[in-house]
TrEMBL record:
This is DUF1203 domain-containing protein. InterPro entries: DUF1203. It holds the Pfam family DUF1203. It comes from Aminobacter aminovorans (Chelatobacter heintzii).
Length: 141
């Protein structure tokens, strides 16, 4: 599918590569994105935005990127190693509690990673997983 090209009004266009908002007057692309390795019943596809011009990739970090701190809550949901939803893990989570909730979910042996999704539209935001030291680590796409 060919991405759609648009011009940002400066509000609500978060680039999933650099994790900053696309500025007013800047071009951006809308793509259909499936944050799973293969098509299967739980592999949701939805829109994401990217700067139309090259931008630096956001670093992987243990802290929530500033872009995500501007919203009051998100859905956190655990997934198994075979990319299926782990039922009973999904919950709308206040933004200040995301790290604690993600770490709690990642302690469950059946949870391989956590998706953070928009609480309003269920749009994919990022994947959270344990780093090599066993700490939660949010990663952009």
């Amino acid at each position: 599918m060919t991405p759609e090209r648009r011009v940002s009004d400066g509000d609500g266009v978060p680039c999933r590569h650099c994790l900053t908002n696309v500025g007013a007057g800047e071009g951006y692309l809308i793509l259909a994105y499936r944050p799973f390795p293969a098509v299967q019943p739980y592999a949701e596809t939805g829109p994401i935005f990217l700067h139309a011009d090259e931008c630096p990739r956001a670093p992987e970090a243990a802290e929530l990127p500033e872009l995500f701190t501007r919203t009051k809550d998100y859905i956190l949901r655990g997934y198994s190693a075979d990319d299926r939803i782990v039922y009973g893990t999904g919950a709308v989570t206040p933004t200040p509690e995301i790290r604690e909730r993600a770490e709690m979910l990642l302690q469950r042996p059946e949870v391989a990673y956590v998706h953070m999704r928009s609480a309003k539209n269920n749009c994919y935001q990022c994947r959270i997983e344990l780093d090599q030291e066993g700490k939660s680590n949010g990663a952009a796409i």
